[in-house]
Design brief:
The complex is a heterodimer of chains A (114) and B (106). Chain A has 1 helix and 11 strands. Chain A has one helix spanning 59-64; strands at 5-7, 10-13, 19-24, 31-37, 43-50, 53-57, 65-68, 75-79, 88-95, 104-105, 109-113. Chain A is globular and about 40 Å long. Chain B has one domain: Immunoglobulins (Immunoglobulin-like, Sandwich), CATH 2.60.40. Chain B has no helices and 11 strands. Chain B has strands spanning 4-7, 10-14, 19-25, 31-37, 43-48, 52-56, 59-64, 69-74, 83-90, 94-96, 100-105. Classes of the chains: A mainly beta (114), B mainly beta (106). At the A-B interface, strand 4, strand 5, strand 9 and strand 10 of A face strand 4, strand 5 and strand 9 of B.
Chain lengths: 114, 106
């Protein structure tokens, strides 16, 4: 089904540490999303890219996260200083183009902040 | 803002029974997708269905756009169908419902 690859599968960090996760979108997909899913199953949109450019991001992402999608390298999402509330499943998704296209997700990175 | 509501929130079935999951959304979008999320967290796209009826295997989705609703029918459920089924409105951002937790008993 999906060929979006996320690494690592699990990540454990102490409070204040950096936490970095990577995503290789499906080949040829220029649009990439990052979502955070909490224990209540709620999805929070974090940021999206078209090619290397940020399309939209929320305030939290702008202040505390560092994200990029360089050409010919995996996309990445890094929390600069992890907090307990950041513990969640981080999901990366890609699609071929606009909103009419199917969205494909990776398996996620489960972050635990101790 | 746009909202997606799913019902029921949870469903328990005996193996072999059919399941009917509902999704209501607050505005139209160019794409509506049904996803399956395994207990481990992986999200799998099941069907993309902005309007009409689509089938794949034991799954049938019917979306009535002007009534802003979509359904997912699972026929002859199996224990391996257990997990969370998510409906998502695919617009500029993707808006998810909270899902239906399905548990199929042997």
């Amino acid at each position: 089904n999906s060929k979006v690859i996320q690494t690592p599968r699990y990540l454990v960090k102490g409070q204040g540490q950096k936490a970095k996760m990577r995503c290789i979108p499906e080949k040829g997909h220029p649009v990439v999303f990052w979502y955070q899913q909490n224990k209540n199953n709620e999805f929070k949109f974090l940021i999206n890219f078209q090619n290397q450019e940020v399309l939209q991001q929320i305030d939290m992402t702008e202040k505390r996260f560092s994200a990029e999608c360089p050409s010919n390298s995996p996309c990445s999402l890094e929390i600069q200083s992890s907090e307990a509330g950041d513990s969640a499943l981080y999901l990366c998704a890609s699609r071929l183009g606009g909103s009419a296209e199917t969205l494909y997700f990776g398996s996620g990175t489960r972050l635990t902040v101790l | 803002g746009q909202q997606v509501q799913q019902s029921p929130s949870s469903l328990v079935l005996q193996e072999g029974e059919n399941a009917e999951l509902q999704c209501n959304f607050s505005s139209t979008a160019t794409q509506l997708q049904w996803f399956y999320q395994s207990p481990g967290g992986s999200l799998v796209s099941l069907l993309s269905n902005p309007s009409g009826t689509k089938h794949t295997g034991r799954l049938t989705s019917t979306t009535v756009t002007k009534e802003r609703r979509s359904s997912l029918h699972i026929s002859s459920s199996q224990t391996t169908d257990s997990g969370t089924y998510l409906c998502a409105l695919n617009a500029y951002k993707v808006i998810f419902g909270k899902g239906t937790h399905l548990h199929v008993l042997p």
